[in-house]
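Extended Data, panel c. Modelled sequence:
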Amino acid sequence: MKTKKSTSITIAVIAVVFTILYILFAAIPLTKEYQFVPEWNLNLSSPVSTNIDPEEKQTFFALGQTAGYFTDKGKIALLKTFPSRVTISDSFFALYNTEASDIDFFDNKGRKAGVIKGSGFPFINDDRIYLMLPGGASYSLCDINGNAKWTCENIITLTAFNSNKNFTISGYANGNVKVHNNYNGDLEFEFVPGGSDYSVIYGADVSENGKYIATLSGQDKQRFMITERNQTDQTKVIFHEYLDSDLNRRTLVRFSKDGKRVFYNYKGGLGIYDLEKNSTLKLPLSDKCIAFEESDNLLFVLGQNGNEFTVYIVEKTNTFEGSFTFTANHAFIRTMDNALYIGKDNTISKIKLERE
């Protein structure tokens, strides 16, 4: 039979243990979740601002037949409407039509920066100005005045194209891939990924250091592949996979900003290959991926299926965080600092990203 004293001791011990456990578990931080906080909405019918602080950051947009630049404070810095086509980046833009030649291009303040000499379609990627030449097989990289620095000539149709500050990669209908040095135009190397019954390159990218090349290619046994180039310009396959079904259109293949991951859109899904972990995350989706944007810790993917657009959100650890869908005729996504910007027809919205 328990005494009153022993019962009191037992209760005291339980209380102490409970208190210790409470302190221990209370000290463990809860998993932080991302919060998406709407900050402002900007209507493109708003007047262009004449009072923009030099500290305000800006980026470009293109929605339907309207393009220009807006700031992180929700101001329109430059607005252009155009009847045909536009190519635009944070540095430059150009308006052109299907019979373009000697095309004027402008800086992000709207000042004429030069003339892209020759006939063809301009393509502006960051501060790089390209002229895609008639015939769809060759292209030139131009200097900041619009004059051709060097030209990659080919007779086979160009089917994939990408670039970074150091290299330009091009893929062709015969399955060939070429990588050129941006500074002097030298052909760094070329190869054929192969492995499929019919060779064609649908998507390609090269890492900023030129060491890795990612391609999505082929019909009948379509495959995604990453090759590594060594110091003697020989390449070896470090990863490849045959895909369950085939795309028959151009698709996005892109290295992450830090060069540690590769994003690629295949038929039926989004793939993310981690070069450090040698692992792949696959997310099923029926949309066509039309844009990849990165913040410090998140990847945003814009998918389109007709007039339905979906933004998919993936954490840097390759964890799927969620998605949301909206209806529009035209849409875009952009990131600046710790914010996501979503364009929808005639409006732009800023969503601040917080982790709490």
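Residues 7-31 have pLDDT under 50 and may be disordered. This feature is highlighted in the accompanying rendering.
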